[in-house]
UniProtKB/TrEMBL annotation:
InterPro entries: Alkaline_phosphatase_core_sf, Phosphodiest/P_Trfase. Keywords: Membrane, Transmembrane, Transmembrane helix. The chain crosses the membrane at residues 323-347. The keyword NADP does not apply. Gene3D superfamilies: Alkaline Phosphatase, subunit A. Pfam families: Phosphodiest. This is Uncharacterized protein. GO terms for molecular function: hydrolase activity.
Length: 349
């Protein structure tokens, strides 16, 4: 099996992809009048694209495992990210790439393709702007043009547009070939849901997110982009989407694992064998055939190499973490004994 991506044999559907993720954004929460179609801008995108309200998360339904699943296109037993308390140097579940290792991400695969298959004058821009620090942990080994954590969603949207204007707009204005993949992560909806549950405040947070998504896409348009963005996990929308105003049937069994393969498919790239999802080809009018999509089987290998000793690299950090746990336990035990002696002394006298 080859360990480098095969050459592109298929024309990409799009050149620029905007991947927007809204944490805690559910379809129909219990005891709520919330309806996705009642959000004006998302309703417009659903009308012009392909959508489903049945995209399944993985278990456990926590942020860290599911964002990991989205970007790696692999479940927790593959990535090792089994909870929000995941620690890469001392995991409770060791992923397939070893301690501290990760399966390939969307950005890693795109970067490897362009490194070996695309002329040097073709501009590749990769970036991630996010409100929740966990996204930065998942992407910490990726070579991105920017990777910025912001204090809130409003700052995240502003920063995302500033970075695109800085890195990509010059190439577009000069009509130079370019490709971009940007991820924007919004977290305020999830925070509001945890604090206040399903209700008016949650619904208002969803309306704000709807407006922020519109800001992002309007910003793309002002920078001379055409409507070539893919919005997931619920909506895929761009001029090349064949299935307009199409609701994916439940039998399509769309999963969060399918988002990264769909982005790679839209760019005309093949996914590595470690990825477990499949591209949502129905959105491109391909209902019966992958057109040889899986003919080229390849395995992603991190640029550090196959023989990179991940276990040895992180053994020191694991030992330090274990030492910290032992010291904390000893201090806690000593504090308890000291408190008991002081209490006995006070009550004795």
């Amino acid at each position: 099996m080859q360990t480098s991506p095969p050459r592109n044999s298929r024309r990409p559907y799009v050149d620029h992809i905007l991947l927007i993720g809204v944490d805690g954004f559910v379809s129909t929460p219990n005891n709520s009048q919330f309806q996705l179609k009642n959000l004006p801008f998302l309703k417009q995108l659903m009308t012009n694209g392909t959508s489903t309200e049945k995209c399944r998360s993985i278990y456990p339904t926590e942020s860290y495992p599911n964002w990991g699943a989205l970007l790696h296109s692999a479940p927790a037993e593959i990535t090792g990210i089994d909870s929000n308390s995941y620690f890469p140097h001392n995991p409770s579940v060791i992923g397939t790439e070893g301690i501290g290792g990760r399966p390939p991400t969307l950005f890693g695969v795109v970067s490897e393709y362009f490194k070996s298959n695309v002329p040097k004058d073709h501009k590749l821009v990769l970036g991630a702007t996010f409100t929740w620090k966990g996204i930065g942990e998942i992407l910490k080994d990726e070579n991105l043009d920017w990777k910025i954590k912001c204090k809130d969603d409003a700052t995240t949207v502003k920063c995302a547009l500033e970075q695109l204007n800085k890195f990509l707009q010059p190439s577009i204005k000069r009509y130079k070939p370019s490709t971009s993949v940007q991820m924007v992560h919004l977290d305020d909806v999830d925070n509001t849901g945890h604090l206040f549950g399903w209700g008016k405040k949650y619904w208002n947070a969803c309306k704000v997110a709807d407006f922020q998504i519109q800001q992002l896409i309007d910003g793309y348009r002002r920078m001379a982009f055409t409507m070539e963005e893919i919005l997931t996990p619920l909506i895929l929308c761009c001029p090349e989407i064949v299935s307009k105003n199409f609701i994916l049937p439940e039998t399509s069994a769309v999963s969060i694992l399918d988002i990264t393969p769909t982005v790679l498919f839209a760019l005309g790239l093949s996914q590595p064998i470690q990825m477990k999802g499949r591209p949502i080809i129905e959105a491109f009018g391909l209902f019966n055939s992958f057109n040889g999509y899986f003919d080229s089987v390849w395995r992603f290998v991190h640029p550090k190499g196959v023989d990179h000793n991940i276990v040895k690299k992180f053994s020191m950090k694991r030992n330090i973490q274990n030492l910290y746990i032992y010291i904390s336990f000893a201090l806690g035990l000593f504090g308890g004994i000291l408190f008991s002696l002081i209490a006995r002394y006070i009550f004795y006298f």
